[in-house]
């Protein structure tokens, strides 16, 4: 198991149980105690937890299922599912596309799965997407930042400048994630600051692709994004409850399950 996968599982256990112990983690992951201690040191350096004698606890008590973790921490949650969703989503991107990628822990790994020889223009309000673009070997990808005020917690660009600049673009595809998908509340998210850019790009794109792991269904975030019927393609993972996916049965939404 790679360290990022192990750390993802450790974070999930920490959120669920409120604490973790080195000895228990070593047994669970069949790893040495030194390996687990190294994981905990790296996670503490990233602000994801606080080490204790023999284990770790959340940085703050408010770090629970209902708390919105910083972007880097959210990237570790359901890590394997998000990677599979990104791989499947990358197959939908076509040579010559102009796409909008929002700022989320699900979409931020998408770039590394895009074909190396495609000419693609990416519009984004995500600092993490910009950083990922700097690691690409594909020089045919053009990345456009919408500009704005830097939000250090979410690694996003927000504000009047980003909102106004986003109005200039009409992408082929808007590829976004969300906080929740629910039959009654529709598509919702958690960031008031980022909603205007996301909504504008959805309105002005030819196709809306939503990436959502199994944990998003039946959940409702604080900010309304859009109606379920606006989703052209929904990409989720094999853990998604088939009963919850039935909410799309009356729409023309194409559902792809990333195995």
TrEMBL record:
Keywords from the named record: DNA-binding, Transcription, Transcription regulation
Record-linked Pfam families: DeoRC (PF00455), HTH_DeoR (PF08220)
PROSITE patterns the record matches: HTH_DEOR_1, HTH_DEOR_2
InterPro entries for this protein: Carb_Metab_HTH_regulators, DeoR-like_C, DeoR_HTH, NagB/RpiA_transferase-like, Tscrpt_reg_HTH_DeoR_CS, WH-like_DNA-bd_sf, WH_DNA-bd_sf
Annotated HTH deoR-type domain residues: 3-58
Classification lineage: Bacteria, Bacillati, Chloroflexota, Anaerolineae, Anaerolineales
Cell cycle in keyword set: no
DNA damage is among the record's keywords: no
Record-given protein name: DeoR family transcriptional regulator
GO molecular function annotations of the record: DNA binding; DNA-binding transcription factor activity
